[in-house]
């Protein structure tokens, strides 16, 4: 087979096996490229920019007032935030705090790990506090792809923390809610999902027993009642079934359908992210903006404004590096005035000056559209307010936030006095 080409009447022709063939006019690069339309619906994201407890719940509550859908994309009931409505204080750990908006749908995405007893107990406790949660089951959808936290995950979490204390003389400060072991099961591909529980229970039971035996092999002293938990899970399956939906399709319809305001409520915070946080003193999920895409099935182009919540001073629960910590009377004053006690654990939070190096780093990772600054009033009575502006090791400033904890522990903080009050 042979071909040749000539130009006739300004148009290129080709000869194929002796027969003339007219070539199509070449399209310009501009004509051939199809530019996708800007998505009509985008998700608005609220994320913590420090070590958690920045006041995300308050910001979410304000934005959720006119939202159509409020989503959780990662974490479990290790997170905690408080929302006050009509003078009633509601505590949320697993439920999106937007569930208080009776006109909005709440959605728990595939990136969340769910402890079912914890979910229903949380709802019951908040129902007893006020009317805000009435009808919550009609307003909640749960992704069929979300993984389940079992009681033995929580038991293992406690054992692992005890082992760390014995072997290294320190622990990670875990909430012992089973979050780490549940994500470990997910990564090991032997975890069980919501869709498994609401399908054939006999098949689920077989997989559950295999998973439980797996942990019993690793931890022979693990005290668990497999049959009792299976009976409990069978009851929960019936309550759960009406709430379960295909999460990917649910989000796709929400994003591509009629105009909707979609809010994503981040749990934990940037410096607790499994990849970008102060490892190993972190949580087991991605608390940064990437977790929104993987935890909900949202394409990156559908991520809209990203708000970083920053407390006017810095707090941290548990162990780990804390360069601007004030382990003194000032720290105690901040703790007292700011009511710095964990919602989930009740533990006292360590307190210190605002660390702008941390906030800058969180912005690098998340690309915040804006910052929501909280608790500035707690500093009202202080004669001076300081902020950390640089880390130095051996007198030399570090160019960015260090990945190595040893560098962070060795860092001296350069402080700036931005404002001094007058008597």
From TrEMBL:
InterPro entries xref list: Adenylosuccin_syn_GTP-bd, Adenylosuccin_syn_Lys_AS, Adenylosuccinate_synth_dom1, Adenylosuccinate_synth_dom2, Adenylosuccinate_synth_dom3, Adenylosuccinate_synthetase, P-loop_NTPase
Q: Which residues bind IMP?
A: 53-56, 78-81, 175, 189, 268, 283, 347
Under which main EC class is this enzyme filed? ligase
Q: Which residues bind GTP?
A: 52-58, 80-82, 349, 375-377
User: What is the annotated localization of this protein?
Assistant: Cytoplasm
SUPFAM superfamilies for this protein = P-loop containing nucleoside triphosphate hydrolases
Q: What remark does the entry make about the cofactor?
A: Binds 1 Mg(2+) ion per subunit.
Q: Which UniProt keywords apply?
A: Cytoplasm, GTP-binding, Ligase, Magnesium, Metal-binding, Nucleotide-binding, Purine biosynthesis
Q: Which PROSITE patterns match?
A: ADENYLOSUCCIN_SYN_1, ADENYLOSUCCIN_SYN_2
Q: Where is this region: Disordered?
A: 1-35
Q: Identify the pathway.
A: Purine metabolism; AMP biosynthesis via de novo pathway; AMP from IMP: step 1/2
Catalyzed reactions per annotation: IMP + L-aspartate + GTP = N(6)-(1,2-dicarboxyethyl)-AMP + GDP + phosphate + 2 H(+)
Q: What is its EC number?
A: 6.3.4.4
- Main site of residence? cytoplasm
Q: Which cofactor does it need?
A: Mg(2+)
Q: Which residues are listed for substrate binding in this entry?
A: 343-349
**Which residues are involved in binding Mg(2+)?**
53, 80
Alphabetical GO biological process terms: 'de novo' AMP biosynthetic process; IMP metabolic process
| Record-annotated active site | 53, 81, 186
Which family does this protein fall into?
Answer: Belongs to the adenylosuccinate synthetase family.
Question: Quaternary arrangement and interactors, per the entry?
Answer: Homodimer.
State what protein this is by name.
Answer: Adenylosuccinate synthetase
Biological source species: Myripristis murdjan
Q: Which gene encodes it?
A: adssl
């Amino acid at each position: 087979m042979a071909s040749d080409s000539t130009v006739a009447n300004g148009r290129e022709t080709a000869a194929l096996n002796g027969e003339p063939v007219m070539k199509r006019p070449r399209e310009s690069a501009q004509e051939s490229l199809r530019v996708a339309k800007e998505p009509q619906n985008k998700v608005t994201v609220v994320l913590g920019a420090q070590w958690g407890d920045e006041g995300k719940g308050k910001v979410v509550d304000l934005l959720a007032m006119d939202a159509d859908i409020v989503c959780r994309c990662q974490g479990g009931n290790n997170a905690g935030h408080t929302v006050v409505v009509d003078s009633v204080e509601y505590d949320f750990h697993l439920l999106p705090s937007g569930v208080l908006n009776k006109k909005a749908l709440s959605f728990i995405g595939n990136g969340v790990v769910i402890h079912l007893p914890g979910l229903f107990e949380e709802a019951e406790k908040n129902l007893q506090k006020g009317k805000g949660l009435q009808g919550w089951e009609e307003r909640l959808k749960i992704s069929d792809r979300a993984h389940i936290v079992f009681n033995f995950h929580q038991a293992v979490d406690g054992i692992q923390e005890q082992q760390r204390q014995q072997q290294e003389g320190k622990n990670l400060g875990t909430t012992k809610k089973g979050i780490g072991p549940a994500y470990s099961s997910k990564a090991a591909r032997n975890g069980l999902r919501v869709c498994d529980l609401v399908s054939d229970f006999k098949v689920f039971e077989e997989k559950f027993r295999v998973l439980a035996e797996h942990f019993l092999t690793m931890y022979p002293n693990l005290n668990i009642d497999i049959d009792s938990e299976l009976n409990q899970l069978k009851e929960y399956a019936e309550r759960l079934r009406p709430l379960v939906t295909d999460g990917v399709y649910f989000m796709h319809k929400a994003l591509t359908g009629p105009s909707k305001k979609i809010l994503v409520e981040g749990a934990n915070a940037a410096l607790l992210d499994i990849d970008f946080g102060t490892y190993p003193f972190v949580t087991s999920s991605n608390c940064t903006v990437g977790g929104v895409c993987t935890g909900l099935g949202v394409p990156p182009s559908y991520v809209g404004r990203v708000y970083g919540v920053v407390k006017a001073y810095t707090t941290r629960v548990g162990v780990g590096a804390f360069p601007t910590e004030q382990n003194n009377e000032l720290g105690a004053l901040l703790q007292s005035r700011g009511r710095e006690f964990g919602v989930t654990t009740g533990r006292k939070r360590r307190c210190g000056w605002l660390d702008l190096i941390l906030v800058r780093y969180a912005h690098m990772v998340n690309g915040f559209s804006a910052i929501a600054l909280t608790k500035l009033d707690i500093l009202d009575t202080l004669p001076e307010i300081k902020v950390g502006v640089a880390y130095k090791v051996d007198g030399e400033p570090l160019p960015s936030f260090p990945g190595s904890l040893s560098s962070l522990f060795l860092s001296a903080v350069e402080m700036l006095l931005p404002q001094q009050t007058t008597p």
